[in-house]
Amino acid sequence: MKLECPYGWKSVARVGSVTLESRVVNICGNICDSADRCGIKRCEFYDLSPEADRHFREAIADEQTIEYQLTKLH
After folding, report:
1. Mind listing the pLDDT tens digit for each residue in 47-57?
2. Contact indicator for 52, 36 with CB cutoff of 8 Å
3. Measuring CA to CA, which residue among 23, 28, 53, 55 is closest to residue 38?
4. DSSP secondary-structure letter at 20?
């Protein structure tokens, strides 16, 4: 699930003289994909443990299945 970071973290990218900012993070299996970059430890989605990494990767894989995609249609 993609949502705007509840703590206001943003990623910044510069392309030439243009600066792009995004506050959107991917929360999958209740783990944030940007936790290692934001460092906001009070966030409920922050977890950098190896177990959380494994859980996040499994949840991402599950989201790619046909079954998961079909449940989103209902």
Report:
1. 999 999 999 99
2. no
3. 23
4. E
pTM of the model: 0.74
Structure tokens at 70: 């079909």
pLDDT tens for residues 17-47? 999 999 999 999 999 999 999 999 999 999 9
In 3D, which of 69, 44, 7 has the Cα closest to residue 52?
44
3-state secondary structure of 6: coil
Where does residue 61 rank: exposed (0-12), middle (13-18), buried (19+ CB within 10 A)?
A: exposed
Query: Under a CB-based contact definition with an 8 Å cutoff, are residues 23 and 5 in contact?
Result: yes
Q: How do 24-28 and 2-4 pair as beta strands?
A: antiparallel
Taking alpha carbons only, the member of 28, 37, 31 closest to residue 9 is 37
3-state SS, residue 26: strand
